[in-house]
Amino acid sequence: MAAISSNFPLITTEIIILVAIFIVCLAVAFTLGKGKSIALILSFYPAIFFYSQFPLPEKLLIFSETPWQIFFGQLVLFLIFFAITFFVINIIAGRGVFYTDRRQKLKLTILAIGIFTLILLIVHQLIPLPEVAKYFPKTGEFFASEKLFFWILLTPLALILIFARK
Q1: Cβ neighbours of 58 (radius 10 Å)
Q2: Residue 142 and residue 149: Cα distance in Å, rounded?
Q3: Domain count for the chain
Q4: Global model pTM greater than 0.70
Q5: What number of other Cβ atoms are within 10 A of residue 151's Cβ?
């Protein structure tokens, strides 16, 4: 095992986790199509707002003994807000279909990057994953930065405006 890690020092657990998350985001984007992927990205913004403004979220947590139970309880609360906003925004903007031509595949890949960015931002900032520095030692500094939170949050919107136009 030491020989493998010495031959491939750049392959770390962090990279493996990030690649796995991106592959899932890519599969979601290709499954949903362009319109619903845009609706998915746009749903993060009101869900973040509603979650951050929700009064007394700790009162709704059923299990709160360990950091992981608190994380999953907060995640479920966020996902409730996310599902509601996705349903509403999907009705308005999600009239997409499955795309197969080459240009649409590039657009869907870029939308997957937007989804990926928002997921990492939420895990680092909004609902901090317990021991997040252990799982993401290199990218954690970037996504956990209070100074960059606003700009990272704008990145998926910029990707939509630049690449997902008709």
Answers
A1: 10
A2: 9
A3: 1
A4: yes
A5: 10
Domain annotation covers residue 2: no
pLDDT tens digits, one per residue of 42-57: 999 999 899 888 886 6
4 inside domain: no
Q: Which amino acid is at 140?
A: G
- Kindly tell me the burial class for residue 10, based on how many C-beta atoms sit within 10 Å of its own C-beta (0-12, 13-18, 19 or more): exposed
pLDDT digits (tens, 9 = 90+) for 111-162: 888 999 898 888 887 777 777 777 777 777 788 778 888 888 888 888 888 8
Does a structural domain hold residue 32? yes
Q: Does 18 map to a domain?
A: yes
- The Cα 82–Cα 40 span in angstroms is 9
Confidence bin at 4 (pLDDT 50/70/90) = very low
Q: Which domain holds residue 94?
A: 14-163
